[in-house]
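question for whoever is on the cluster today: can someone run the full assembly for these? two chains, 233 residues total. i dont have access anymore since they changed the login thing
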Amino acid sequence: AQKVTQAQTEISVVEKEDVTLDCVYETRDTTYYLFWYKQPPSGELVFLIRRNSFDEQNEISGRYSWNFQKSTSSFNFTITASQVVDSAVYFCALSEARNTDKLIFGTGTRLQVFP
Amino acid sequence: GAGVSQSPSNKVTEKGKDVELRCDPISGHTALYWYRQSLGQGLEFLIYFQGNSAPDKSGLPSDRFSAERTGGSVSTLTIQRTQQEDSAVYLCASSSGFHRGSSTDTQYFGPGTRLTVL
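^ ran it for u. tokens below:
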């Protein structure tokens, strides 16, 4: 069965700290896709990144970086030098190629960045 | 360009009434999804459309829930005889649907409709 686990319910950091949000997934598919979405207080889900199961190359985008490790079924997200504007709920999600691309979401991690 | 739009943004209704929620996907997107976000259940999939067809309705919680899509564009989610447990934010997402497994299949979300059943 497919499942996404975000064990960290809430994380609080002070501005400029680095923070890593954990995501562990379960799937029996060999072809699948992993996503991170950000949900700021306004409520709209904002797409951050998509990774394909056959591409384990890590990615960096500005202060954001993602570490995809198939060996541990993890897709962790790191924010470097966090800012107050990073405060939001972050969701990790999985979709499977044979399963209509519907997203299976984790329960989310609420990140609070204090000035 | 315009993103996914949803209306109304907020809906308050009385238990037992029917409600209709509307989603306008990104122009040209053939795939459309409905999700529900509630405190107890998190973010859960409801239904998927490819064009006007719904090949996956597996997430609809009961037969009080139905959805349709016309002209391969606008979709309406209808909840009949609403119950208090239907209170949630209903989110719509769309993707290009043209090339499953490619980067164009990312789902983009609308702002949601907050439904409150009194």
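summary bc i know u wont read the tokens: The two ends of chain A are 41 Å apart (CA to CA). DSSP finds no helices and twelve strands in chain A.
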